[in-house]
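Posted in: Structural Biology > Protein-Ligand Complexes

Title: Requesting predicted complex, 2-oxoglutaric acid in pocket

I'd be grateful if someone could produce the 3D structure tokens for the following input. Sequence and ligand are given below.
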Amino acid sequence: MLKKFKIACIQNAITATKTQTLALVKDQIKEAAIQGSKVCILGECFNSYYVKAQLQNNAEDFGKTGERQTLDLISEISKQFGIMIIGSIPEKSGDKMYNTAFCFNNGQLLVTYRKTHLFDIDIPGKITYKESLTFSAGDNYKIVDTEYGKFGIGICYDIRFPELAQIMREKGCHFLVYPGSFNLTTGPLHWELLLKARAVDYQCYVAGVSSARYMGNDESIYKAWGHSTLLDPMAKVLATCEHDPSVIISEVDLDYLEQVRQQIPVSQQRRNDIYELICKK
Ligand SMILES: O=C(O)CCC(=O)C(=O)O
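-- Reply #1 --
Done. Output follows.
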């Protein structure tokens, strides 16, 4: 297992067409790879505006290799540069849609994860969103064991559920990655706080990666908070950005992660005689 390497968070611009969006993403991944990144994390549904009609149009069927514009491109770039790439896209499966994360390494699809906690919230006058009108929910967590360590994948709203992160930690994860797309109401208050909370509670490297903010004047298009961020297991921010398209890169070190876990050994100090988290899958 490689212990020291660079991770990149790719905050991409979303455009009105998938082809144009993907061309921009490709350039950013290339830039990250040229700078030595071995793992690239993309945002939530990064090939699409977060609007039902476009999500439907841009959805892909994971089963149909060769007909999947986004997945085939990601697989190809991952192979070309010998890197691992994680992100989420809208998935079409029969008559259902899922918000689904993928992890490609060297061109191979290692795992898919369907978002389990859907973003249905109502803050009157600020933001009302019902993701369950577009997507069905997944029914399991996913961990992927790679040459770069073990990665637990959550998508956006999933970060509000520490139980999911705790299970991933208990199953040996070194990294918690959250492709996400917070908004202008909850983003400023909760995004960095939640990323820091997951890092400090479970002593993992944590990446929260958003798409860039839509800056046009179509009111129906969701405005993402942006602020993709990478944190270490002490919850120190290693790299971050604002809302423009950005590539942020930092080195991670799994020996340092072990040191943190030894110095503050919370995972061995849980009082399972008083409380316990039960994993049902
Ligand atoms: O939890 C939040 O405030 C935002 C979540 C979100 O935007 C999402 O899950 O897509």
